[in-house]
Prior knowledge:
single chain; mainly beta; eleven-stranded antiparallel β-sheet; two-stranded antiparallel sheet; 2 helices
Amino acid sequence: MAKVTCARFTFAPIVSGGNGSDVVYEDGVMLEDYLAKAEVTEDRTSDDEYADGNKIDSEAIATGASLVMELVNNNDDIRVGVLGFQEGTGGELLLTSKDAPYVGAGCLMANRYKGDITWEGYWFYKIKFASSGVSAETRRDRSNWQHETINGKAVDVILEANGDAIYYAFKSGMTESAAIAWLKAHANISDASPSEETTSAATETVSGT
């Protein structure tokens, strides 16, 4: 099964929650662009249990997760809403000493299998991004362009009192329209419609401890 598309980077400012209750977001922003690259990684650590000097059990516990995206187009909404740029009086965007905000963020990826395409969604409940920069190089009649890449490290949240630490939500087996609706619902985008058709294979999981 090969990934064929990654798209729809979406983010939303955080209002409250995550410490025993659902995270509440301001109205989110969904980009229409495809992404040049999207990568989700998970961090795990081993928790070993010993008795009489012998290891009797071992668990690989999730300790974090990351989201890295290479954007097709530079986007002012991302610079302001995700990276913490400020708007100057002349219409320019200013990188200042202001800290980048925590946001909820996610994206969609598509799978093709035997001609059929299904979509999967990722939503990070609380994450802070930084930019790895953008570069261009010209040598005679040849040029190289590196799209801007942003990378973020998730912060664990607790969605239920005395619950597990959670880093992101994942849902697979969706049609494209259902995947878009699922992501909009997480990001508090008003035209979200979670009841849109999903394939029978649709499942949702959360990644945490």
